[in-house]
Specification:
Blueprint (H helix, E strand, L loop, with lengths): L21 H11 L4 E8 L2 E6 H17 L7 E5 L4 H12 L3 E5 L5 H11 L3 E4 L5 H4 L8 E4 L9 E2 H7 L14 E6 L9 E5 H14 L7 E4 L6 H14 L2 E4 L6 H8 L3 E4 L1 H14 L2 H7 L5 H13 L6 E4 L6 H10 L3 E5 L9 E2 L12 E2 L4 E4 L4 E5 L6 E2 L3 H7 L6 E9 L5 E6 L4 E2 L5 E2 L1 H8 L5 E7 L7 E6 L1 H8 L4 H15 L11 E5 L18 H7 L4 H5 L4 E4 L3
Parallel strand pairs: 1-11, 3-4, 3-5, 5-6, 6-7, 10-11, 12-13, 13-14, 25-26, 26-27
Antiparallel strand pairs: 1-2, 8-9, 9-19, 14-15, 15-16, 17-18, 18-20, 20-21, 22-23, 24-25
Helix pairs in contact: 1-2, 1-8, 2-3, 2-6, 7-8
Length: about 575
C-alpha cells in the first residue's frame, strides 16, 4: 500500500472555481497510484475481488465508451439501482466521464417508486446490480428502457458489465466537467411523502468532500466499510466522494448475514452508522455478556479497559479513529456505553439538500443532545419558531422539475429551511429539538413536540426505536420497538416481566418531567420489528410516523384514555 497521504486543506468560499472536482481527483489517483488497492469487493462463496485504481479506471472508461455509443450526451440522466458494490461507484464514474448525470435509486424501493423516479428524472439507461427483490421491482422499469447488469445482479437478459468491458476500448482522454454542471440528482427517501429529486453540482460535491476530508483528517491510509445505501447522501459523500479526494481503501459488505465478517475484514479507521446500528452492536455484546454482568465487570479498575478493548476488537472497531453517528437522535445511554469502551461517538447533522454537510461534533467535545458546531463554510441561523436555517457551498441547486417546493425550501438569501427546530449554544453547538411538521395538536388544543419526549424514552436500554403520536387525542402515546436481544428473549418465552417492569419505571420517571398536556397516557410495546420491508422505516432507517399511526389507528383512542400504563401490542 502506498504511504502517500493526500489530505487537501481546501478553504471553502461561496465561489471556488479553482477547487479540484471529483473526476479530477480520480484521475490523480489513477495516474499516480495505479497499483494501490481502491476497492475490496466480496463476490460470494468466500471469494474476494481486489481492484486497483488502474483497474477501476480501465473498467469505468470502457463503460463510458459504451454509454456514449448508446447515445448518452451531456446532461443526460442515467440511473443506478443496486446495493453497494464496486460496480456502483464505477458506474458513477462512467456516467460522469460520458457527460451524464447520475440518478441513484434505493435498492429497497418498490416498483411504484422505481417507475416514478425513472420517469420523473427522464433517465435514458439503468444499471441493475445486487438486489433482493428484483422480481417485484422490475415491474417499475419501462420495457423500452436500456439496462445493464452487474456481475452480482439477479438473473436477467440485459447487456452485462463484463461483456461491455470485453467489447469496448477505454476512453483515452480525461473528460472534464465544470463546477456549475449538474452531477447528480439524489431522490429523498420519502419520509413525508413522494421523493423529491435534489440537484447537486460537481462544485457542491467538491466543496463538501474537500472540507470533510480535512475535518476528519482523512488520508490514503484510511480504511472504510460501505454498507449503508450509496443512494443516500451520507454514504455517497462520506465514502465515495471523499475516497476520490483522499485515496482511501474502500471495502464493501456482502450481506447482513456476513456483516460481522465484513467488518472484521476491513477493520475500519473511520466508521459511520445510524443509531440503530450502534444499538444492534450493543445488543450483540449483551447476548454474549449479560447486561448485569457487563456493568459489574466495567466497575472493576483495569479490567474495564481490557474488556473495552476486547469488545471493540470483537466488533472490528479497534482501529477506529473516528466513529460517527447521524440520521436520527442517539440516546445518552448508548453514547455513554461506547464511551465506557473507549470509543467516542461523534454526532453529525446534515440533509440531502446540503449533501449532509452542515454540523459535526469535534473530537473530545461530544455532548449529549448536541450535533456539534457548524462545519467550515456553513452559516446557520434560527428562523421563525426556531427553525434551523443553513447555508453553505454544498447547498442544492433545487428540486428537479419542482420550482414550488424549491421556493419553499430555499429562501432569497440562499438558506435552506431544514424543517428541524433547534437551539444554538454560545459555542455554536446545535441542539435539535424537533421537526416543524411533526409537532401535533391534541384534542385539548395543546401542541406537542414528540422529539424531546422520544429522547427521554431512548435512554432505556430496552428501547431501540420510539415514536410519539397523538394528533387529535386527549394525551400523546409512545409506541416503542424493543431491541433484537429482547425480541429473541421473548421468542424463547422469557423477559416479559423484566421488560414491563423496566418500562413502567421509565414511564414513571419521564412523565413528571413533562408538561401536563405532554404526559404520556400509555407506552405501547410493539411485538414486531420495524423494517423497510414492512414500510415503517425509510431506506435510511427513519420512522414513517404516518405509517405507524395508520397501523394503530383503531386502538389510539383507547390508548389515549389510559393513565400512564405500559401495554403490550397483540402479537
Amino acid at each position: 500500500m502506498s504511504a502517500a497521504v493526500d489530505v487537501l486543506p481546501i478553504a471553502i468560499s461561496p465561489v471556488n472555481t479553482g477547487m479540484p472536482l471529483p473526476l479530477e481527483r480520480f484521475y490523480f489517483w489513477e495516474k499516480n497510484h495505479p497499483n494501490k488497492i481502491c476497492f475490496t469487493q466480496p463476490m460470494g462463496g468466500g471469494d474476494t475481488l481486489h481492484l486497483t485504481w488502474s483497474d477501476v479506471g480501465t473498467q469505468a472508461r470502457k463503460v463510458a465508451t459504451y454509454l456514449k455509443a448508446q447515445g448518452i450526451e451531456q446532461g443526460d440522466r442515467v440511473a443506478i439501482l443496486s446495493k453497494n458494490c464496486a460496480h456502483w461507484i464505477m458506474s458513477d464514474l462512467a456516467i460522469w466521464m460520458a457527460g451524464g448525470v447520475s440518478v441513484p435509486i434505493y435498492p429497497t424501493s418498490n416498483a411504484e417508486t422505481v417507475q416514478q423516479i425513472l420517469e420523473h428524472s427522464g433517465s435514458k439507461l439503468l444499471f441493475v446490480g445486487k438486489l433482493d427483490t428484483w422480481d417485484a421491482m422490475k415491474q417499475g422499469v419501462p420495457a423500452s428502457m436500456k439496462c445493464v447488469s452487474y456481475p452480482l445482479s439477479p438473473k436477467n437478459d440485459f447487456d452485462t458489465w463484463n461483456r461491455i468491458c470485453d467489447q469496448n476500448e477505454p476512453l483515452a482522454e480525461n473528460p472534464p466537467r465544470t463546477h456549475q454542471e449538474l452531477g447528480t440528482i439524489i431522490y429523498t427517501s420519502g419520509t413525508t411523502g413522494t421523493p423529491k429529486g435534489v440537484m447537486h453540482t460537481f462544485g457542491s460535491m467538491a466543496a463538501g468532500a474537500g472540507q470533510a476530508s480535512t475535518l476528519y483528517e482523512v488520508s490514503s491510509r484510511d480504511r472504510v466499510l460501505s454498507y449503508l445505501p450509496l443512494s443516500h447522501v451520507a454514504e455517497r459523500m462520506a465514502l465515495e466522494i471523499v475516497q476520490f479526494y483522499q485515496g482511501t481503501h474502500l471495502f464493501f459488505a456482502e450481506s447482513l448475514e456476513t456483516f460481522a465478517r465484513d467488518l472484521q475484514r476491513c477493520r475500519p479507521t473511520i466508521f459511520f452508522a445510524v443509531p440503530r446500528i450502534w444499538a444492534k452492536f450493543r445488543s450483540g455484546v449483551y447476548e454474549k455478556i449479560p447486561e448485569k454482568k457487563f456493568k459489574l465487570l466495567m466497575r472493576i479498575p483495569f479490567l474495564n479497559k481490557y474488556l473495552g478493548r476486547k469488545i471493540l476488537q470483537g466488533l472490528g472497531l479497534d482501529y477506529c479513529r473516528f466513529a460517527l453517528s447521524g440520521a436520527a437522535p442517539i440516546s445518552a445511554d448508548l453514547m455513554e456505553w461506547y464511551q465506557s469502551l473507549g470509543l467516542e461517538l461523534l454526532e453529525v447533522y446534515g440533509m440531502t439538500e446540503n449533501l449532509g454537510y452542515s454540523h459535526a461534533t469535534r473530537r473530545g467535545r461530544s455532548r449529549i443532545g448536541y450535533v456539534g458546531q457548524p462545519n467550515p463554510g456553513v452559516e446557520v441561523r434560527l428562523g421563525e419558531n426556531n427553525e434551523i436555517l443553513v447555508k453553505s457551498p454544498c447547498t442544492m441547486v433545487g428540486y428537479y422539475k419542482d420550482p414550488e417546493k424549491t421556493a419553499e425550501a430555499l429562501d432569497g438569501n440562499g438558506f435552506i429551511h431544514t424543517g428541524d427546530v433547534g437551539s444554538i449554544d454560545d459555542d455554536g453547538a446545535l441542539r435539535i429539538t424537533g421537526r416543524v411538521k411533526e409537532i401535533f395538536k391534541t384534542s385539548k388544543g395543546k401542541y406537542v413536540a414528540p422529539f424531546p419526549i422520544e429522547n427521554h424514552l431512548l435512554a432505556n436500554p430496552h428501547v431501540e426505536q420510539v415514536c410519539v403520536v397523538g394528533a387529535g387525542l386527549p394525551q400523546p402515546i409512545a409506541i416503542v420497538m424493543l431491541t433484537d436481544a429482547d425480541r429473541a428473549l421473548l421468542a424463547k418465552g422469557g423477559g416479559r416481566e423484566e421488560i414491563t417492569s423496566s418500562l413502567e419505571e421509565l414511564l414513571a420517571a419521564v412523565n413528571p418531567k413533562l408538561d401536563a398536556h405532554e404526559k404520556l397516557a400509555a407506552l405501547v410495546i410493539s411485538q414486531s420489528e420495524w423494517t423497510t420491508e414492512n414500510g415503517i422505516l425509510t431506506p435510511t432507517l427513519k420512522i414513517k410516523r404516518n405509517v405507524l399511526e395508520a397501523k394503530y389507528q383503531h386502538q389510539l383512542e383507547d390508548y389515549a384514555e389510559r393513565r400512564g400504563e405500559v401495554l403490550w401490542e397483540s402479537a
